[in-house]
Specification:
This protein has 12 helices and 19 strands. It is of the alpha/beta class. It has a 7-stranded parallel sheet. Strands 1, 11, 14, 17, 18 and 19 form a 6-stranded mixed sheet that branches. Helix 2 packs across helix 4. It is elongated.
Amino acid sequence: MALTPSEATAASRLIVDLDAVAENWRRLNGLAAPGRAAAVVKANAYGLGAVPVVRRLLREGVRHLFVARLQEALALRPAVPPDVMLAVLNGLCPGEEEEAADAGLVPVLNDPGAIERWSAAARARGERLPAILHLDTGMNRLGLGRREIERLAQDPSALAAVDLRFVMTHFVSAECADDPRNAEQVRLFHARRARLPPAPTSIANSSGIFLGPLAASDLARPGAALYGLNPTPGRPNPMRPVVTVEARILQLREIEAGETIGYNATWRAERVSRIATIAAGYADGYHRSLSNRGVGWLAGRRVPIVGRVSMDLITVDVTDVSEAVPGAAVRLIGPEIPPDEVAAAAGTNGYEILTALGAARHHRVYLGAA
């Protein structure tokens, strides 16, 4: 798909390959068989744009979507058919039950209070309301703990007003395939689930899908892998790259050996150097911690980030790249510099790299959109 003139000349671009997202989901869905794969589209589809991502995934046959908060679900509701499950992983804050029920949402019930409030809403409406029950097996964030599960097992009538769509848990270390906690969590989950009313199961996240039969369930919940992050660290990435971020050169200057660049003079030229200033910064989701550590891609070669990353500008050493001219695009994230590599240089993970793009000012381009 060719870019329009406005897309091609934008100061910076975030390009999302929706066909690659769809291909990644197809692969994950195949690996989840005989169960199915959902799609986790929380945090604006990890910063990439929830509405266009969801529309593309719906064309692929995705029937289960997960966000984190009620507000995310309500924003997506107009784009999601009523027969597609739209679930809220964090559950509902007290008082949000009626709004969620009116919108046909499926909250994850993470504690006894949430069960009571959702059940009360169901009884007030004279109907059973759909929900997912979360059993904690070691993460110790959200979900019913051992004692709460025991009490629920002794009084399963507490769920009588709930249409239990799935019972779920969440891995602590699924990306570490040899971590014994994975098997222990699965064991605990099945033991605790067996004491509750029967319902389909949901276990694996992106990395969990690659644990094979150990993490098999009725519904896997991939997120990061959909967007090209590597679910198998230390091994080749099985997913297609999805994201490209480019920023155009605003100005070129030649500096002498010994001169410095940027705030606090953190980089000093060791030779006569040609420096490109490009139209992106930490306000565009490119982390300040990549100062003097990150790299760009220009004319088929890597070019180092020099000096501090500032709010709106980045400086790049293009001394050895004759093709560097005002208006040329320097790639900051893409197939040659994947998000996981950028994350390693920044001292974080690929999730933070992608979600930081969510509020950025880049002109957005969606390849493969309907």
